[in-house]
Amino acid sequence: MLFAHPAANKSPGITVGTVLRATRHWQALPTAHGATPVRRYLVPMQVKIALVQLDIVPMEPLKNLARMEEHAAKAKAAGAQLVVFPEDAVCGPLQGQTAFVPYAAEYLARMQALALRLGVDIVPGSWTVAENGVLYNRTFYINADGTLAGWYSKVNLWATEKLHIAPGPGVSVFPTRFGLVGLIICWDISFPEMFIAMRHLGARLVISPTYWSFPKKALRSEELLDDEVLLIDSLCTTRAFENDILFAYCNAAGELQNPDGSLAVLSGRSQVTHPLQKVLVQAPGNAEEMLLCDAVLDAPPAAAAAVA
């Protein structure tokens, strides 16, 4: 199922602090029926992106939120216009634990207030939200004025997620000050039809908050890491190239101790890829760091001719 997400249709599971303004309506959305996008989406896309490869503290949302605020302020000071955090950035992977779900709206409101205070667009990773008793893994795009541009619920769930989380209804593409943007989460990157659908709706930039890890096994950890890096790098480069988009992939950092005592290693490797220039910026490993990238994507030839 494909749908273009109108930001004005606020999700029933989201409440916004009264200090924040209402979301703008989406007009002139390109659809499969041939509606024409507004003029400003036909020009080159230019944006300075900060990817925060965050070492997330599991089940410590207040600590994570405070560190996200610190990183966002540093990114803004460095000139970033858009700051992206990993999947599960606020709470870490909950694995069926629901104690933090009632606070989902508060996490969103705090991130909206941060965007408004700094004057920077933010994709604050993702967290679990509840709607009508159903749980979703959801990410958001927050405008620099604190309003909500769009949201997306993860469609392609990892095996362990399927035990507790429901898949979202479809792709999400929405307007921002930089142009039309799509959101995915982590494992969605493995499904090219997601990108085809977003590109069909006019997306020029796709953003992927991610929590990609693999089991730590003493005898093969280095080989496993090499395999994961090869897979991630290949997918990021391919998705940008085959869809003529900018692709921003923001993974988490460090290691995670699972409930059974085993360790998982985050793959890191956050990066921004370009259809022609390939890798614009890339984390060399899985340590916590912030990456900055000046990304420019030319308008499609037909669009450039229309503007001229």
Structure description:
The chain is an alpha/beta fold and 308 residues long. It has one domain (39-307): Carbon-nitrogen hydrolase (Nitrilase/N-carbamoyl-D-aminoacid amidohydrolase). Helix content is 23%, strand content 27%. Strands 7-8-9-11-14-15 form a 6-stranded mixed sheet, with helices on one face. Strands 3-2-1-16 form a 4-stranded mixed sheet. Helix 1 (61-77) packs parallel to helix 2. The longest helix is centred in the last third of the chain and has 23 residues, at 221-243. The protein starts with 44 loop residues before the first strand and ends with a helix. The relative contact order is 0.17.
Short description:
The chain is of the alpha/beta class.
Our Rg estimate from Cα atoms comes to 18 Å
The helical percent reads 10-25%
- Total number of strands: 16
The main pleated sheet reads as: 6 strands, mixed
CATH superfamily: Carbon-nitrogen hydrolase
Please give the alpha-carbon distance between the first and last residues: 35 Å
Main sheet strand line-up: 7-8-9-11-14-15
